[in-house]
């Protein structure tokens, strides 16, 4: 249980990049382990593959737009799934790299918003490409999984915002961020006509979204505001309400003092009035010693 507790703690205190990694790795590893165990006991799930759990029909993005009618969630869920170990390993390494650069200039909520919105945008471009481009239109129905498009959006957004930012790469040395961004974009452009055309077009769509996001942000429009507001709403919705602390009640002695002081004040004033009446009728010399002392004290 120590490892599980450590993972829970790391998840709670970690930032959005770490949480995204947990979600991606969890959705890749946990179903694979479960279905592998089921396979050992001869239990077969006909619509699932052991190496890509949940991705074939339910959560992957299909190039057939009709599929969106019965699984609209796939525009988001595909961006949290991967087809193999090397696929998820490379994407998570890129997410750490691009995510840390992005958070140098932007917030955690903005990163999450860019991740989700770019995934939706890239998914729509993917479907549109398979139904309009001659190169893909005749290739039949295809399915897509992977966080690559969303990660490209995060990387390109950072490069557009701060193109001269310097990054030190192992075995290469210090390069500017825009150099890294242009290499990835050119690779996607080259391979779009060679292999995995739909995937590379989705990467380019993610890059385009990252570019547009920063340009619109610089003009005063933050596209991720809606995502941040929705995130705050659901966070507050499921957050346990704060318990009202017990309040210690103290009796205020002031009212009692005032209640006591008021009669005392009335008595004093009456004594003064009586003495003044006596003075007006008989003169000051008619006062007794006690009355003179009282009047003297009150006068002070």
From TrEMBL:
Every Peptidase S54 rhomboid domain range: 71-217
Regions that span the bilayer: 21-43, 75-99, 111-129, 141-162, 169-191
Record-listed E.C. numbers: 3.4.21.105
Domain DUF6576: 264-295
Keyword terms, alphabetized: Hydrolase, Membrane, Protease, Transmembrane, Transmembrane helix
Protein topology in the membrane: Multi-pass membrane protein
Single GO term (MF): peptidase activity
Gene3D superfamilies reported in the protein's UniProt record: Rhomboid-like (1.20.1540.10)
Any single biological process term in GO: proteolysis
Enzyme class: hydrolase
Protein family (similarity comment): Belongs to the peptidase S54 family.
Name assigned to this protein: Rhomboid family intramembrane serine protease
Lineage per the UniProt record: Bacteria, Pseudomonadati, Bacteroidota, Flavobacteriia, Flavobacteriales
């Amino acid at each position: 249980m120590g490892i599980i507790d450590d993972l829970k703690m790391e998840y709670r205190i970690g930032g959005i990049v770490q949480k995204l990694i947990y979600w991606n790795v969890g959705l890749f590893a946990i179903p694979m382990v479960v279905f592998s165990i089921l396979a050992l006991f001869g239990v077969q799930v006909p619509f699932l593959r052991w190496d890509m759990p949940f991705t074939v029909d339910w959560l992957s993005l299909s190039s057939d737009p009709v599929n969106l009618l019965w699984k609209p969630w796939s525009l988001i869920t595909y961006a949290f799934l991967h087809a193999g170990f090397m696929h998820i390993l490379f994407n998570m390494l890129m997410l750490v790299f691009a995510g840390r650069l992005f958070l140098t200039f932007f917030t955690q909520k903005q990163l999450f918003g860019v991740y989700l919105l770019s995934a939706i945008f890239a998914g729509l471009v993917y479907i549109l490409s398979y139904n309009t481009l001659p190169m893909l239109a005749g290739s039949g129905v295809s399915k897509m999984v992977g966080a690559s498009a969303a990660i490209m959006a995060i990387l390109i957004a950072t490069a557009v915002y701060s193109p001269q930012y310097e990054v030190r790469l192992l075995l290469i040395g210090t390069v500017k961020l825009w150099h890294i961004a242009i290499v990835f974009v050119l690779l996607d452009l080259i391979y779009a006509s060679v292999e995995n055309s739909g995937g590379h077009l989705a990467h380019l769509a993610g890059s385009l979204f990252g570019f547009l996001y920063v340009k619109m942000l610089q003009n005063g429009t933050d596209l991720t505001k809606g995502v941040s507001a929705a995130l705050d709403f659901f966070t507050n919705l499921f957050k346990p309400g704060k318990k009202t602390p017990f309040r210690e009640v103290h009796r205020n002695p002031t009212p009692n003092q005032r209640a006591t002081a008021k009669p005392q004040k009335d008595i004093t004033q009456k004594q003064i009035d009586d003495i003044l009446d006596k003075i007006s009728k008989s003169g000051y010399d008619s006062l007794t010693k006690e009355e003179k002392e009282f009047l003297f004290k009150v006068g002070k």
